[in-house]
Amino acid sequence: xxxxxxxxxxxxxxxxxxxxxxxxxxxxxxxxxxxxxxxxxxxxxxxxxxxxxxxxxxxxxxxxxxxxxxxxxxxxxxxxxxxxxxxxxxxxxxxxxxxxxxxxxxxxxxxxxxxxxxxxxxxxxxxxxxxxxxxxxxxxxxxxxxxxxxxxxxxxxxxxxxxxxxxxxxxxxxxxxxxxxxxxxxxxxxxxxxxxxxxxxxxxxxxxxxxxxxxxxxxxxxxxxxxxxxxxxxxxxxxxxxxxxxxxxxxxxxxxxxxxxxxxxxxxxxxxxxxxxxxxxxxxxxxxxxxxxxxxxxxxxxxxxxxxxxxxxxxxxxxxxxxxxxxxxxxxxxxxxxxxxxxxxxxxxxxxxxxxx
Length: 357
Ligand code: PHE
What we know:
Bound molecules: phenylalanine
Largest sheet: 8 strands, mixed
Order of helices and strands: HHHHHEEHHEHEEHEEEEHEHH
Shape: elongated
Oligomer: single chain
Radius of gyration: 39 Å
Mean pLDDT: 91
């Protein structure tokens, strides 16, 4: 019996496949297996012999059974390990370097601006690019005769003959989104509205389509101080510098009162822009406290609520931040330009992960 035991235990230990284990099981304890045959012989024994051999045989059978089971499990574990080793994948590896498309600087900067304002609690709002002249002008306190209508070089849509309604316009700024958001959401509000705007103009720094981002905060206790803080935080985060100096220059917009144009301190030494130092000032946006008439046009009670608004050129701040000299190149779809100025598709700008790298 000891020989039988040693033989099978060592055969089981040496098995390398589940099929071998099954063969061994049949050989040892299958119907005609060696151990089973021995058990059958018990019948021919004397009661004394049987009393001695019976339990031993049963114990041997149990031992072989559990040795088989243990080995089977060990083989399965080893197979799984082997498979895991083969299928192993390091998800922490950086993705393959950019191969095809890149993110356009306008999209990149829009994402950056959105990330910064989202951190200050501003949601993103949108409006149509083909706008009624009421939203683009009247509701913003720009009546029909106002010079701002002419100044903006507005594109008008065509009306059929005899159609007396005022034509729609391609929005000349993102400010109509202020009106739409106030009408739809009521106060309080904290939004930015990035998007395309249109004016008939074309040179190094003007294209007939360009991009703005509007900001609007309406609440019960809002002042120019809030505007100033928000803009300072924005400029520091956007240009990725610790300190900036802003200059609020008195200005005029029909839809804000008071109004201010905002400049940032900068230097152009050696032909490259440095924000936060130097003796130059660079205008980056228009802003002010929302005019009571604008609140009224949007069904918000100006005796109860007030707020600030600003409008900034996305293309302009993209040119400044990334040293892009000619605005027109943004829209040429030149692959060499896109490869040079584009951003890797998987580098999503976040405040924590970094905006531009
Ligand atoms: N809409 C203005 C423009 O296009 C910018 C602006 C927005 C100014 C909001 C003040 C407040 O020039």
